[in-house]
């Protein structure tokens, strides 16, 4: 089609002077169109004094206009049906593509242009139903109505596709990409095959077509190009596609294809391009390719293709692009890949056909990387990342003339030193060697061999030092290109001093090394340094402040040992992370004036004290604010709630904040995470929190909040973590509203409160993330990702920054900090409340549940047998309740992954099941149940106690057993000494209970009533309970 465009419209073909009526019609057309003068290349030059056949975009024959090209003329008004365009009756070729006709309908007056053979209105801003009048242009050879750039679609509904094309028997090229056709396979396939027998190009991507693909398409025997990307065929590719004898290009990208792909299609002798990418359920193998194959471009990325790469792949000597990334290929790279370089020797004039792009990333390929790959003379891009390649990369000679621009060998198992030959690729701009086992030293001066280096990533290796040749040389980088240098997660112990004079550094990442001491002053003087990451080292001080660095916008100094007061800030930073240090001052009162452009600000895990300044609310662009794990006191500034229109993550947890949580969350609240845990906040949970409908994590644990269960949060459909533990919540937890709540919920911890009543069952079915694996995967709780922009005339998006918050959960009686919640982690903790009644059978429907803790309540009845359906359960704690009956054998049969079990201190009876996991638990899992017997308890099942001896001595009727008498006297005497003062002496009573509690905490440090959380209310209806560590 592009060749036709160039043929028809590159220049005006003049045959005689332009006829007056033709010129008049064109001038009227120009006058009726609204276009941007400085963007126009044709209309702006139409001048009345010049023959119209000489105008740009106009083609004439005998003075009559036969071709008109107004593509990309920035036309922005509707095309009226009365337009003079429709008086150009001799038009044969018309191109209106790339304009914006204001989402108007295609005028039906196009039927007047009966001589049209070429009509291109692609991405022209038309919308709505395509008129039936198009079908009356029976001479059309090429029709392009593609609509891929518009939010308002073109549609083919009434008339349908069959009606639209029924008269277009001369059509050879049909482009309807992005047009809403919405037809079943049999319908659209028959519509095309019955009318368009001469069709050579069929392009109907993203047309809402569905399958199955019908064999009637075979009647289109001239088809050369088939492009059907982005439709939902949800089925296999039929083998009849191998019968298209003229097929050169076949594209089924992202079509929901399934099953095995027919190998015969690969072997079509005419096939040059095949794109099956983004069909994750499509399987297949690469066949043996015949000699001198014609395939030029092959994309299989993100499919289920597997097996080894065949040696015959070297037969594809016309290959230009090979993308097999994100598949399941294994084995090694065949040595025949070197054959893809032979074409230059045989046919030097067609070297453009040689392999230019090789992408094998994200497979399971192994072995060594063939040195011959680096000798492919036309290779521009090579990506072998995320495989299992191992060994050393050998040095390779004679590659200075190679055009290699992008090389990614990251995330493999490569060893040894970095090969110096890599830096002989003078045109190499992007080199990624991260996440390997490369060791030794790296000679930084090698970079000067590259003409335009842009990014060098050596992170996550075992490099021990950076050798600096000519330490103060400013010629280390000889280009004007800015360079990003990443050396994170190595074993460096000092700052590479040769970087002090390198003015081209735009990014420097030295994070997570072993660098000690102070940050050198020269690092703040690098003139264009924009991003600096020194986190995860052992830095203690800075030679001087970074206030003088005018270019720096991203600064990460987290997880070091920096101390003293907070450094003086500058107002141009976008990202500031000082977390995990030893800063020990107050937060400056004017902190907000330095956050004008910041989107990320973290001071967590320091030793800061004092109050939170109200000026922090001047950071109106903040997306993340983390002041957690300090010693901040006072109340939460009310203005922080107002910031939640833009603020995504607010973490003030683990401080000493007091007062209430202001009921001031805005109606357009954007919060995704709110963590206020571990403070001394009181009052009620604010009702305006319901405005935060995007909330994913809510952690109010370990405070003094006194309220009922927050049913008003039920409409927060994205909620994944709800933690209310260790507060003063009370009352039932049932919500009267019938609507489903929290379908993505993975963690709910309401332990150690005063909740009461029965457990409601109406909410369980709606927790689909605990029921359905697909929903669970959708609601995966990974690090929350956010993006920010720097200000200025040319804003750019900083690379994705990940934020991690700590969530505390109770397991085996211990509090654990979860930094990252995995996909499968689900938890329900209702322990240490006043719940009563039977445990609902409906718990058994939460088949993806991993931890369930209902201990220290007043549940009665039996253990539900449905618990045996919780096949993923790893921890079950039902201790310290009033459960009766036997342990259901279904638990032992079904809970095959159970590693923690506590059924102690109930009223269970019968034999302990000795099946599967239940054979591994100790007696502490069952103690306090007098009716239980069997291993591991000492009480044996089915053995009656020996009968008491009833025989007496003839003289024993009046005898006294002085042994028993002495025991009774001792008991009475001791009881009086201890209990007497308790009953009548108040001071002794207070002293006794205080010290007995202290002794209990020392003996059982892992009990649920931890001393550090002494503020928790013990449920009133259970008295003094047993709290034991679960082994």
TrEMBL record:
Pfam families on file: LRR_1 (PF00560), LRR_8 (PF13855), LRRNT_2 (PF08263)
What are the annotated GO cellular component locations? plasma membrane
| Keyword Transmembrane helix in record | yes
User: By its UniProt entry, which Gene3D superfamilies does this protein fall under?
Assistant: Ribonuclease Inhibitor
- What's its membrane topology? Single-pass type I membrane protein
Leader sequence segment: 1-16
Occurrences of domain Leucine-rich repeat-containing N-terminal plant-type (ranges)? 21-61
UniProt KW Transmembrane helix keyword = yes
The membrane spanning regions, by residue number, are 962-985
Q: Which UniProt keywords apply?
A: Cell membrane, Glycoprotein, Leucine-rich repeat, Membrane, Receptor, Repeat, Signal, Transmembrane, Transmembrane helix
Main subcellular localisation: membrane
Q: What InterPro entries is this protein classified in? A: Leu-rich_rpt, Leu-rich_rpt_typical-subtyp, LRR_dom_sf, LRR_N_plant-typ, RLP23-like
Compartment(s) of residence: Cell membrane
Q: Give the UniProt family note.
A: Belongs to the RLP family.
- UniProt-recorded name of the protein: Receptor-like protein 12
Q: Which organism is it from?
A: Morella rubra
């Amino acid at each position: 089609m592009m060749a036709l465009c160039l043929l028809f419209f590159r220049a005006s073909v003049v045959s005689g002077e332009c006829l007056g009526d033709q010129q008049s019609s064109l001038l009227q057309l120009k006058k009726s169109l609204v276009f941007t003068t400085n963007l126009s290349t044709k209309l702006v030059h139409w001048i009345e004094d010049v023959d119209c056949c000489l105008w740009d975009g106009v083609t004439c024959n005998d003075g009559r206009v036969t071709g008109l090209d107004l593509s990309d003329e920035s036309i922005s008004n509707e095309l009226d049906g009365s337009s003079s365009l429709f008086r150009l009756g001799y038009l044969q070729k018309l191109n209106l593509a790339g304009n914006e006709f204001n989402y108007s309908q295609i005028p039906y007056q196009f039927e007047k242009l009966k001589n049209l053979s070429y009509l291109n209105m692609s991405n022209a801003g038309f919308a709505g139903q395509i008129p039936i009048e198009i079908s009356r242009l029976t001479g059309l050879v090429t029709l392009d109505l593609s609509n891929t750039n518009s939010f308002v679609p073109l549609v083919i509904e009434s008339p349908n596709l069959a009606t639209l094309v029924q008269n277009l028997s001369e059509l050879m090229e049909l482009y309807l990409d992005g047009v809403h056709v919405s037809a079943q396979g049999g319908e659209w396939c028959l519509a095309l095959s019955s009318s368009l027998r001469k069709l050579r190009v069929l392009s109907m991507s993203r047309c809402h077509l569905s399958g199955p693909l019908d064999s009637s398409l075979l009647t289109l025997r001239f088809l050369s190009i088939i492009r059907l990307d982005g439709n939902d065929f949800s089925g296999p590719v039929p083998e009849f596609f191998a019968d298209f004898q003229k097929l050169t290009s076949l594209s089924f990208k992202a079509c929901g294809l399934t099953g095995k792909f027919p190998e015969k299609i690969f072997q079509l002798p005419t096939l040059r391009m095949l794109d099956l990418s983004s069909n994750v359920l499509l399987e297949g193998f690469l066949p043996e390719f015949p000699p001198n194959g014609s395939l030029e471009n092959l994309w299989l990325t993100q499919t289920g293709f597997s097996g080894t790469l065949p040696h015959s792949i070297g037969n594809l000597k016309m290959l230009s692009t090979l993308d097999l990334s994100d598949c399941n290929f294994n084995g090694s790279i065949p040595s025949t890949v070197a054959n893809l370089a032979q074409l230059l020797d045989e046919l030097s004039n067609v070297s453009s056909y040689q392999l230019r792009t090789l992408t094998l990333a994200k497979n399971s390929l192994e072995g060594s990387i063939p040195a011959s790959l680096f000798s492919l003379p036309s290779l521009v891009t090579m990506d072998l990342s995320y495989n299992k390649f191992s060994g050393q990369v050998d040095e390779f000679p004679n590659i200075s003339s190679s055009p290699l621009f992008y090389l990614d060998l990251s995330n493999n198992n490569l060893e040894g030193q970095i090969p110096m030959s890599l830096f002989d690729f003078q045109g190499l701009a992007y080199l990624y060697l991260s996440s390997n086992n490369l060791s030794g030293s790296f000679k930084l001066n090698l970079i000067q061999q590259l003409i335009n280096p842009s990014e060098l990533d050596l992170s996550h290796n075992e490099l021990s030092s950076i050798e600096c040749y000519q330490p103060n040389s400013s010629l280390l980088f000889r280009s004007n290109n800015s360079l990003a240098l990443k050396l994170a997660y190595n074993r460096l112990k000092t700052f590479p001093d040769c970087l002090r004079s390198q003015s081209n550094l735009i990014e420097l990442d030295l994070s997570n090394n072993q660098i000690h001491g102070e940050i050198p002053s020269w690092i703040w003087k690098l003139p264009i340094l924009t991003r600096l990451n020194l986190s995860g080292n052992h830095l203690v001080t800075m030679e001087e402040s970074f206030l003088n660095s005018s270019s720096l916008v991203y600064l990460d100094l987290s997880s070091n040992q920096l101390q003293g007061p907070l450094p003086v800030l500058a107002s141009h930073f976008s990202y500031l992370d000082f977390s995990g240090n030893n800063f020990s001052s107050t937060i400056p009162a004017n902190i907000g004036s330095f956050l004008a452009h910041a989107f990320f600000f973290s001071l967590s895990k320091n030793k800061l004290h004092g109050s939170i300044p109200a000026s922090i609310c001047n950071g109106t662009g903040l997306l993340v604010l983390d002041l957690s794990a300090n010693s901040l006191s006072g109340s939460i500034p009310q203005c922080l709630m107002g910031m939640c229109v833009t603020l995504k993550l607010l973490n003030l947890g683990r401080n000493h904040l007091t007062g209430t949580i202001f009921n001031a969350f805005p109606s357009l609240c954007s919060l995704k995470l709110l963590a206020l845990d571990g403070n001394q906040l009181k009052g009620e949970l604010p009702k305006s929190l319901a405005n935060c409908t995007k909330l994913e994590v809510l952690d109010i644990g370990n405070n003094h909040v006194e309220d009922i269960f927050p049913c008003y949060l039920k409409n927060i459909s994205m909620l994944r973590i709800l933690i209310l533990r260790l507060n003063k919540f009370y009352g039932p937890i049932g919500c009267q509203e019938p609507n489903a709540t929290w379908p993505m919920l993975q963690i709910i911890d309401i332990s150690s409160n005063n909740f009461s009543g029965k457990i409601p069952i109406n909410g369980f079915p709606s927790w689909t993330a605990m029921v359905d694996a697909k929903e669970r995967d959708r609601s995966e709780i990974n690090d929350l990702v956010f993006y920010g922009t720097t200000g200025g005339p040319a804003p750019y998006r900083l690379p994705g920054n990940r934020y991690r918050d700590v969530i505390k959960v109770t397991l085996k009686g211990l509090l654990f900090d979860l930094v990252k919640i995995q996909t499968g982690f689900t938890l329900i903790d209702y322990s240490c409340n006043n719940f009563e009644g039977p445990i609902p059978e409906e718990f058994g429907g939460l088949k993806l549940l991993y931890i369930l803790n209902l201990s220290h309540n007043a549940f009665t009845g039996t253990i539900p047998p449905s618990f045996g359906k919780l096949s993923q359960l790893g921890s079950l704690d039902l201790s310290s309740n009033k459960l009766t009956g036997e342990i259901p054998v279904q638990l032992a049969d079904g809970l095959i992954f159970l590693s923690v079990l506590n059924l102690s201190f109930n009223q269970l009876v019968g034999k302990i099941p000795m099946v599967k996991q239940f054979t591994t638990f100790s007696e502490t899992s069952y103690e306090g149940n007098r009716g239980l017997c069997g291993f591991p308890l000492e009480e044996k099942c089915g053995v009656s106690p020996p009968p008491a001896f009833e025989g007496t001595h003839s003289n024993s009727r009046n005898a006294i057993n002085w042994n028993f008498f002495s025991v009774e006297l001792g008991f009475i005497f001791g009881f009086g000494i201890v209990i007497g003062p308790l009953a009548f002496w108040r001071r002794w009573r207070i002293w006794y209970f205080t010290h007995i509690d202290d002794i209990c905490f020392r003996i059982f440090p892992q009990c649920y009533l931890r001393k550090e959380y002494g503020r928790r209310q013990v449920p009133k209806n259970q008295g003094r309970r047993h709290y034991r560590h679960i082994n």
